[in-house]
């Protein structure tokens, strides 16, 4: 059996987990909550620095209760990017220290791919088109010839970020996505929102501006939230469907924190049913940023001979998923 300790802390959630081939053994976390406004990278990093010892100790104690000890850990995996520089640096420093002191390999993991792989694991989907929607990212991806290829993505801000910005304008605290979802559920009237899809790419910042304008000119907040969601999620569903059509794929996997949204899930489910395809979404705790996904991808990487020497463990705030050569999936003929 292989046991991996995974550390996640790219943005606001700090999390440590122990994972084996069979299961997630234990996960502990601590979430930074901004007093006002959005996530401040330096404050979030400060939060992670002060909580790291506590979170890692809780994860280790939890694993101990399950019969595992420190010496059973085979490697330590960490989010090498993408993410906020100060947050990444804090977590990478802890991971390096753990790897050196426990004398076990270090594995730098791409955070986006970790979202994909935990979804594939938990849902049992083989070769899906992936819709990855989080605070900072919005991408449509699929595996082809040893890499996760980015087929389409946002040209400006991530959908989560767009929702959070509008929520702040409404005076709601971070994270705004779930609060917008709640308000949208009682909205009925569609107000105009810009629907921006360019080929396979998307743009969301105009939506936030339009929503603010609609509010300033007397629109009902429930109707605006409803219209915002309908527009943004239809855009995402359209691009996901086109990726499936082009690649002849019949599975969709939803990943990332915005994936918790029931309306988005419903639209994707409807689109998949209409095409005779299958739609997969993991439990909410594996949609948001979590240490288990980092440990799990670390496990796949370790087993395929992929570790990260300390001198190559520098953080990558703009790390793109298609930079990673996927060594843990069987080669498929083109
Ligand atoms: P992540 O970056 O993957 O941790 O996801 C965080 C983002 O997900 C934030 O922008 C949240 O506002 C957003 N989010 C979380 N739950 C929901 C929801 N139910 N509907 C829409 N957005 C959500
Ligand atoms: Mg994420």
Query: Helical segment tally?
Result: 10
> What is the count of β-strands?
12
Poorly predicted sequence stretches spanning 5 or more consecutive residues: none
Task: Specify the CATH class of the largest domain.
Answer: Alpha Beta
CATH-assigned homologous superfamily of the largest domain: ATPase, nucleotide binding domain
What compounds sit in this structure?
adenosine monophosphate, magnesium ion
Mean pLDDT: 96
What do you see in this structure?
- It is a single chain.
- With 334 residues, this protein is of the alpha/beta class.
- It has 2 domains: 4-115 and 286-332, 2-Layer Sandwich (Nucleotidyltransferase, domain 5), CATH 3.30.420.40; 127-282, Nucleotidyltransferase, domain 5, CATH 3.30.420.40.
- It is built from 10 helices and 12 strands.
- It has helices at residues 41-65, 85-102, 111-123, 159-169, 177-184, 205-216, 221-247, 262-275, 284-287, 291-303; strands spanning 4-8, 13-19, 24-31, 75-81, 106-110, 129-133, 138-144, 147-153, 197-198, 201-202, 251-255, 278-280.
- It has a 5-stranded mixed sheet, sandwiched between helices.
- Helix 1 (41-65) packs parallel to helix 2 (85-102) and helix 5 packs across helix 7 (221-247).
- It is globular, with a radius of gyration of 20 Å.
- Bound molecules: adenosine monophosphate and magnesium ion.
């Amino acid at each position: 059996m292989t046991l991996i300790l995974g550390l996640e802390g790219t943005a606001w959630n700090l999390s440590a987990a122990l994972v084996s081939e069979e299961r997630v053994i234990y996960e502990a976390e601590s979430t930074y909550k901004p007093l006002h406004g959005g996530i401040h990278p330096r404050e979030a990093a400060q939060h992670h620095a002060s909580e790291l010892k506590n979170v890692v100790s809780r994860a280790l104690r939890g694993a101990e209760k399950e019969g595992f000890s420190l010496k059973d850990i085979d490697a330590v995996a960490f989010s090498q990017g993408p993410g906020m520089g100060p947050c990444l640096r804090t977590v990478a420093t802890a991971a390096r220290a753990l790897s050196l002191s426990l004398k076990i390999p270090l594995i730098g993991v791409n955070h986006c791919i970790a979202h994909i792989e935990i979804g594939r694991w938990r849902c049992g989907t083989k070769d899906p088109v992936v819709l990855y929607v989080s605070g900072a990212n919005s991408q449509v991806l699929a595996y082809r010839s040893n890499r996760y290829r980015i087929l389409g993505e946002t040209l400006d801000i991530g959908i989560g970020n767009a929702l959070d910005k509008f929520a702040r304008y409404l005076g709601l605290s971070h994270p705004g996505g779930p609060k917008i979802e709640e308000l949208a559920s009682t909205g009925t009237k569609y107000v105009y929102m810009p629907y921006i899809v360019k080929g396979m790419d998307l743009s969301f910042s105009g939506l936030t501006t339009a929503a603010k304008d609609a509010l300033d000119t007397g629109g009902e907040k429930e109707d605006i939230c409803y219209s915002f969601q309908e527009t943004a999620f239809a855009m995402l569903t359209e691009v996901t469907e086109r990726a499936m059509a082009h690649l002849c794929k019949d599975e969709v996997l939803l990943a990332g924190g915005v994936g918790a949204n029931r309306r988005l899930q419903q639209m994707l489910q409807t689109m998949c049913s209409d095409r005779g395809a299958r739609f997969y979404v993991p439990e909410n705790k594996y949609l948001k940023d979590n240490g288990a996904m980092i440990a799990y991808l670390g496990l796949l990487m370790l087993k395929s001979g992929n570790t990260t020497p300390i001198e190559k463990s520098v953080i990558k705030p703009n790390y793109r998923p298609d930079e990673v050569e996927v060594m843990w999936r069987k080669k498929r003929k083109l």
